[in-house]
Amino acid sequence: MNVRRRHISAVALTAVAALGFGTLTACSSDSAAAGDTGSFDVVASFYPMAFLAERIGGEHVHVTSLTQPGQEPHDLEISARQTAQLEEADAALYLKGLQPSVDEAIGQSPIATKIDAAELTTLEEHGTEAGHDEEHGDEHGTEADHADEHGDEHAHEDEHGHDHEGGDPHIWLDPVRYAEVAEGVGKAFQKADPDHAADYRKNTAALVKDLKALDEKFRTGLANRTTDVFVTTHAAFGYLAERYGLAEEAISGLDPDTEPSGARVKELQKIAKEDGVTTVFYETLVSDKTAKTLAGDTGLRTDVLDPVEGITDHSRGEDYFQVMEANLTALRTALGAR
Q1: Which end of the chain is more exposed for a tag (fewer CB within 10 A), N or C?
Q2: What are phi and psi of 62, to 5 degrees?
Q3: Of 162, 213, 188, 161, which is closest to residue 94 (Cα–Cα)?
Q4: Per-residue b/e over 202-212, b at no fewer than 16 CB within 10 Å?
């Protein structure tokens, strides 16, 4: 897959190639790879963590991502060179429960500042294959109703073998939870690099303001809709669904490589008919074959709902905010929002 390359200096490209270490994400510094920059060096596990580090750190932080653009983050295996380079960084920013090899490498490293995004907000369990009657009952409630009911609706990982330790890790797809993580990362940067604490504080506030604005766009954009139900290939959107009173029906589990059972496919066909579903969503980093098969069997259309796990040439935007706004547009169309 061809991926989008940021414009960085030849010196930086040479340094990264020599180290064989992932991809340098966009940041204000074009200095050499992590551990040899003279700035606060942060290793981020994958794009949503790197985005936070870059926005909060600004010109004071050099960010390197362990996961390359276009690489499915769930499948990442840390190399020996990456492990060695990780130990040279000033901080590691990751999301425990999403990438086991990253969890292990960071857990065993002597790095001084380890920031686990999962500890900066509340993780919950979101189900994948809950029964239609159990999830939806006879009618779809208000956003408050959904918020009250989500604990019972979505606690199905253990039953279906999709458990992630500590709950669903896809917190960045809820702008409110992502803002909570941003605030925690900002405080961690201030503590680890006090000389630039004022700038980290200012940058964090600006990012949180933007995330609150994004939350408001989703609230108003999805307020008037004809259905609450959307179908995805990958159960990544549980937090987003919970936040805005929607109901995600996933073909696969939290693990995007999980194959659905025949019974699950039949159930989804029934749900699509009963709930006025128009669209089966797929994502850019995972095969669209299952989504297109289901859509073809049920007379539905397909579209992209991006879990924003990485930015590539196929992404509908250059960064987190642009891709999330593209997701909102796709959801509004699918849900009949006016």
Answers
A1: C
A2: -105, 120
A3: 188
A4: ebbeebbebbe
* 295 alpha carbon, distance to own chain's centre: 25
Residue 139's contacts (CB-CB under 8 Å, 6 or more residues apart) are: none
What is the DSSP code string of 78-109? --HHHHHHHTTSSEEEE-TTT-HHHHHHHHHS
In the sheet with 91-94, reading across from the earlier edge strand, the strands are 23-24, 61-65, 40-44, 91-94, 113-116
Residues in the chain: 338
Q: Are 237 and 243 in contact (CB under 8 A)?
A: no
- pLDDT tens string, the chain, 338 residues long: the values are 333 333 333 333 333 333 333 333 333 333 334 455 578 999 999 999 999 999 999 999 999 999 999 888 988 999 988 888 798 999 999 999 999 999 999 999 999 999 999 999 999 987 544 333 334 433 434 333 443 433 333 333 333 333 345 689 999 999 999 999 999 999 999 999 999 999 999 999 999 999 999 999 999 999 999 999 999 987 899 999 999 999 999 887 555 555 666 777 788 888 888 888 989 898 877 767 778 777 777 788 899 999 999 999 989 999 999 999 999 999 999 999 99
**Residue 50, SS3?**
helix
Question: Could you tell me the CA-to-CA distances from 43 to 52, 53, 59 in Å, in that order?
Answer: 12, 9, 15
